[in-house]
Amino acid sequence: MALAADAPKDSFRLSMLVYDTRYRSYTIQIVVLVLFGMALAWLLNNTAQNLALRGKEFNFGFLWQRAGYDIGQQLIPYSNDSTHFRALLVGLLNTLVVAFWGCIFATVIGTIVGVLRLSKNWLVSRLMTVYVEMFRNVPLLLWILLSYVILSETTPAPRDFRVTDEMAAAGTEPAASMMFFDTVAVTNRGTNIPAPVFERGLGTLDLGFMSLNLTFWAVAAVIVASVFVNRRMVVGARAQQEATGIRPVIWWKSILILFGPVIALLVAMGLDLEVPELKGFNFQGGILVAHSFTALTIALSLYTAAFVAEIVRAGILAISRGQTEAAFALGLRPNRTMSLIILPQALRVIIPPLISQYLNLTKNTSLGIAVSYLDLRGTLGGITLNQTGRELESMLLMMMIYLSLSLIISAVMNMYNRAVQLKAR
Amino acid sequence: MKKSVFFGALAATTLVAGLAGAATLEDVKARGELICGSNTGLTGFGAPDASGNWTGFDVDLCRAVAAAIFGDATKVKFVPTTGETRFTALQSGEVDLLVRNSTWTASRDSELALDFVAVNYYDGQGFMVKKDLGVSSAKELDGATVCIQTGTTTELNLADFFKQNNITYQPVTVNDDSEAQRQYLAGACDAYTTDASGLAASRATMPDAENHIILPEIISKEPLGPVVRHGDNQWADLVRWTFYALLVAEEKGITQANVEEVLASTADEEVKRLLGASGDMGAKFGLDNAAFKNAIKAVGNYGEIFARNIGEGTSINLARGLNALWTQGGLQYAPPFR
Questions:
Q1: What does the pLDDT read at residue B207?
Q2: N or C: which end of chain A has fewer CB within 10 A?
């Protein structure tokens, strides 16, 4: 008893910080924290010192100066009189549009390939294996360059479309002609497609700091509203089916709700198609989808689809065979088995790695610089950086934007993931 | 012990990093070679030849500076830079001197904290098109697709030119000259625009050079010259006066071949000062007194450098034009060597 009561009572000694396990972990953590703080302070100090040495100051004022350069692909109005900030927005939208289409195509192609790779058809499954291995194991940059070179070297020059007077007299055909009833022209610069124009458009609303294209937003709002109403109706129909056992016939209502209002609005605004026409050096009118965009989207989609295919295959294989057999035993047809039994469970396995593929794709759009695609990296991190000499500010801003983009995408996908998660009831 | 070595090294690197840029000449002397930022490859101005030796109009100026410092024109290392990376490479101390057809502008002088020390080539921006396009003036380029190197002044001039003339164009932004040529030759753009000298240099390397024309319009002033970091006046002076020494040499008829002969026979005091026979001109720049003689001996005078690399008779075939000496109606003028 005496011994136990005589537990070391001695006061705290400095050496205990190292030798006493109770304190050692704190010591280590504090040391690491101090070292980290010192490293950070050194970096900041070094940056500040070097900036001062070169007579530069850290500020983002340059974003409001006139940009002075032109950008080929603009989703919002932009001219060389706009500010660098506007150029940043144009670049950001160019990044987003590639990322958006890339994610959609990659998911669709990836899912199809992933399912086909499990096909019992030997040829089909082997072909898909070849595709996956080819795209996964060659650097993305090479795929981007390859698709760009193929697009720009195999397509005719705009002048090949021209019909000169002599040709008309001799009755010879030009070397190249437009497709789809003379509405689409593929040249070695890009694809010219018809553009929607409105006779009675809603114009633009000027908010001072930015202007809104009301026509575009009206169409977008109507589509969103239609989808929402349609969804409510489907939910209502399901509730009725579960209550009464009879599913009401709603398919024609769906079609009416989804397409009716949009078509009515477009007709009311006087929708017309502006078909591209060869004038001077290039096709004028319509929309020019540059090959840099097409090549980047194709390469990113095919490359990422190879990874998505593997993820989908893994997800499906993760569901035990017994589930399918049980579903068959209950009398479900194969496609119902897939959509009701396998996919809901497979999605739990598929979604998390899919998020990281989406993030990869979004970040990989910055490789567009190789084919002169002016995305965020090309405008803010390229021309703006060069013309203003604001490397640090531009790079930090660009990193912040890519970081926010990635965080937003993963937040949205995580929400979806929670929605399809197996719920314990 | 280990730790103190580590921290010592850390402190030393910080110090060195802090001091770099202050005394470039000392750094270069201590290193034993000059590091010169050059073009990634622009025939006639700065490009490696078949055996890997850098040659060209801009390259020779680097060699002249190396010869002035070390008495040996081979003690120079060339670092290829693109339009995008060149100024960062100079600012960060990766290169001591940038001679890479860079345009002298107000904002580069002030905002980028660079010093353009001289103009070794007076240039202007032009357009090159294929002959069979049937265009004879840049103002006819309405609606054309134009290839343009990014990070350059030409990018901004192009936008201004088309706006002033109320015509439109579609830009294709490329990273360097070779990429621009590929796009242009493949027909991805109707016209290629850059400095007229650069266009001539590009055309010289094309397999069908006779099928391409350079349009008569020169849409901008492009004074190209050697660049150093802001704040090291001794180094800026050295580079500036090495260039002027080459100009004075042409003015006085001193060539690579006859420099020793002239030195022995001349009665001209300015020539004597230039070649180090009297006074202490070299020493004033922290160099050997024969520094400028060495530079002239290594690469020849300005006229010789021009004629050898880009002059009439070479594949680039440029006339002296604005770059003739002031005595012959050009703009090349050196202040007195006194």
A1: 86
A2: C
Q: Which has the closest alpha carbon to B284: B246, B244, B222, B237?
A: B237
Is B186 close to A188, i.e. CB distance below 8 A?
A: yes
Please report which helix (H) or strand (E) contains residue B80, including its range: strand B76-81
Residue with tokens 């830079």: B81
- Could you tell me the maximum CA-CA distance found in chain B, to the nearest angstrom? 76
Distance from CA of B165 to the nearest CA of A (A): 14
pTM, entire model: 0.79
How far is A108 from A96, CA to CA, in rounded Å?
18
Closest-CA distance, A89 to chain B, in angstroms, reads 18
Q: Which residue reads 């950070």 in tokens?
A: A40
A76 pLDDT band, cuts 50/70/90, is confident
CA distance A84 to A174: 43
Q: How far off is chain A from B46, nearest CA to CA, in Å?
A: 22
pLDDT score, position A7: 58
- Across A188-214, average pLDDT: 75
Is the pLDDT assigned to residue A400 strictly greater than 90? yes
Surface of B (222-281) touching A: CB under 8 A? 229-231
- The residue type at A425: R
Q: Which of residues 291-350 of A touch B (CB under 8 A)?
A: 291
CB contact A55 to B (< 8 Å): yes
Report d(CA A180, CA A192) in Å as an integer: 12
Residue A5 pLDDT:
57
Pick the residue from chain B with its C-alpha nearest to A279: B143
- DSSP E strands, B89-167: 97-103, 114-116, 121-123, 125-130, 144-149
Query: Could you name the CATH architecture of A67-137+290-420?
Result: Orthogonal Bundle (1.10)
**Which ipTM did the prediction report?**
0.74
Q: If contacts are CB pairs under 8 Å, which of residues 140-199 in chain A contact chain B?
A: 152-153, 157, 188-189
Q: Which residues of chain B have pLDDT under 70?
A: 1-22
For residue A225, give both structure tokens: 């509203």
Domains of chain B with bracketed CATH: 2-122+223-328 (3.40.190.10), 125-220 (3.40.190.10)
Q: Side-chain half-sphere of A226: how many Cα atoms within 13 Å?
A: 19
B84 CA: distance to closest CA in chain A (Å) = 6
> Domain map of chain A by residue range?
67-137+290-420, 195-274
Task: Quote the CA–CA distance of A301 and A143 in Å, as a whole number.
Answer: 10
